[in-house]
Amino acid sequence: xxxxxxxxxxxxxxxxxxxxxxxxxxxxxxxxxxxxxxxxxxxxxxxxxxxxxxxxxxxxxxxxxxxxxxxxxxxxxxxxxxxxxxxxxxxxxxxxxxxxxxxxxxxxxxxxxxxxxxxxxxxxxxxxxxxxxxxxxxxxxxxxxxxxxxxxxxxxxxxxxxxxxxxxxxxxxxxxxxxxxxxxxxxxxxxxxxxxxxxxxxxxxxxxxxxxxxxxxxxxxxxxxxxxxxxxxxxxxxxxxxxxxxxxxxxxxxxxxxxxxxxxxxxxxxxxxxxxxxxxxxxxxxxxxxxxxxxxxxxxxxxxxxxxxxxxxxxxxxxxxxxxxxxxxxxxxxxxxxxxxxxxxxxxxxxxxxxxxxxxxxxxxxxxxxxxxxxxxxxxxxxxxxxxxxxxxxxxxxxxxxxxxxxxxxxxxxxxxxxxxxxxxxxxxxxxxxxxxxxxxxxxxxxxxxxxxxxxxxxxxxxxxxxxxxxxxxxxxxxxxxxxxxxxxxxxxxxxxxxxxxxxxxxxxxxxxxxxxxxxxxxxxxxxxxxxxxxxxxxxxxxxxxxxxxxxxxxxxxxxxxxxxxxxxxxxxxxx
Length: 576
Fold this sequence. Notes:
This protein is α/β, with parallel strands linked by helices.
């Protein structure tokens, strides 16, 4: 029970403590010393470790879990979105959208011709009527001289007004990129719509926050995460701006989140085989700059993954996720639909040979490859490359590749994840699309493929591990709503349909995916992810027991305390 420690600095007693260990043990009490868990057991057992110096917390039957590990999100983008012009993820017409933006412009103190207006909380696929696109011509109707962009919350579409396109340096002579699209009208003029990598590059080129502003965003981010019970997060597109800010917080002992990062290698970073060593070297330099040399109970930073953006997104009208067979499109009208096979199968952004070599070389460098794969075509491509990695380099068996999103798999894929020791990183809330989106997917994919939409339990049933990643701010940050969707496959709204393409996850499966299995994905299951002797004391106390309440009630769970390395970093008004 005890590892070389004779007393506890902190003791939690009389609780319902789910440990997430290999046997899903539930205990009553734990002891913590120097930020480590030194004992678990009954209250009577832990009381033997209590002295006059021990701080005792009586849980009075409350539930304690390991801290939540969010294994794929974009926290800094999420923090930036918490202020400024925001459309609140609403389904709006073009006129309603322009009215909201104009109202913000009229009241914004920034009036300069070069003051960017970034509009967030916008969902391209939810513009009404569905299938409608907002273009440069629409944004040019706004009464402003400023550059204005709409940045879709899936981060795959950016719409720019004429002023913004000029400042991006884009015009009708700009060549088509390899990893996305630049929208054009019939006469070749730009329509203002940028898709996939061109959208992200344009967004990244907008003048960044200064260091002090970035630190304030980082503080807000970690508070929002801690409030949700998140103790560890993996930034799926790490960059200097945010990691400089979080490193400053760490140096000042103000960091309250364990922050992992995936540094992206784009097709432009390695256009040929000969460019791969340079791209890997730059990734290693970034990791050396921002990774702590020691991993301790005190929160720190670690860059241990490399990100590859393999394909786009599934939703119409973008349809850039890579499929094995063509998308179906409506050749009729909204009232008289007629879906037929198109010639569109989506996009794969990397040359196959280059991608295989990239995956192998980053693995040799010690990184875990982390791939954005939405469609079955992208999943199949990457699984083939991972099979090559496993076959050609058995010495790299310890490398843990992960595929993020996996919204549309093929039936053969689930077993391959297990066979190739590859983790499926899933955003559980995506299993609860709106009724309108369910209908659209059904038509767009056809009956047979629709059955594989938003799988989760199918991976587990095939023997594969899954890890939870909220993908915030693609959706609002609401971890417990996401968990509710995982155990019901029903989204928001009183009339929401259940997405009946997979079984519901159990509460145990959900909690493990957001704790110990997410830790496994990050290679950290020896230090975090469960409440076991020798691990860091990353803990949360919640106001109700998710194992005993109704599945629908899980979204109403409130976090009372968040503890990282034994230190309290968040406390709700209610006290333990």
